[in-house]
Amino acid sequence: MVLATVITRFLPFLLFPAGKKTPKYILYLGKTLPYATIGLLVVYCLRGLQFLSYPHGLPELLAIVAIAALHLWKGNSLLSIGVGTALYMVLIQGVFC
Fold first, then answer.
1. Cβ atoms within 10 Å, residue 78
2. Of 48, 97, 46, 49, nearest to 67 (Cα)?
3. How would DSSP label each residue in the chain?
4. CA distance 40 to 33
5. Burial status of residue 15 (CB atoms within 10 A of its CB: 0-12, 13-18, 19 or more)
6. In contact, 97 and 89? CB cutoff 8 Å
7. What CA–CA distance (Å, rounded) separates 70 from 65?
8. Alpha-carbon span 92 to 22, nearest angstrom
9. CA-closest candidate to residue 58, choices 37, 35, 88, 14
10. Are 49 and 86 in contact (CB under 8 A)?
11. How far is CA 74 from the centre of its chain?
């Protein structure tokens, strides 16, 4: 386990040393993968929604709106995700139970 961890930590520095120019495909991946990952996580989290049965996806929708609004207002990802998660938990365990 230690060897695997060390290899994954140091391999990028060995493959892409500071003096060499970073390949274009690595720069492309660095720009596109964060958005693709977030999109994949959103789809994964919302995959089991049942709009035809109570509560019709309302807790998820309210949490998403709160996350988006808070992020646009404050610009802090950690705050947005934390408050959105707390709001969602309150909604599904206290309001829409």
1. 7
2. 46
3. -HHHHHHHHHHHHHHS-TTSPPPHHHHHHHHHHHHHHHHHHHHHHHTT--TTSTTTTHHHHHHHHHHHHHHHHH--HHHHHHHHHHHHHHIIIII--
4. 10
5. exposed
6. no
7. 8
8. 46
9. 88
10. no
11. 17
Tokens 């492309």 locate to: 28
User: Distance between CA 34 and CA 27 in Å, rounded?
Assistant: 12
**Residue 39 identity (one-letter amino acid):** G
Contacts for 92 with CB less than 8 Å, ≥ 6 apart = 59
Kindly state the tokens that stand for 52.
């035809």
Q: How many CA atoms lie within 13 A of 6 on its CB side?
A: 3
Q: Mind listing the pLDDT tens digit for each residue in 46-94?
A: 998 988 889 899 999 999 999 999 999 999 999 999 999 999 999 999 9
Extract the tokens encoding 79: 């705050």
pTM over 0.70: no
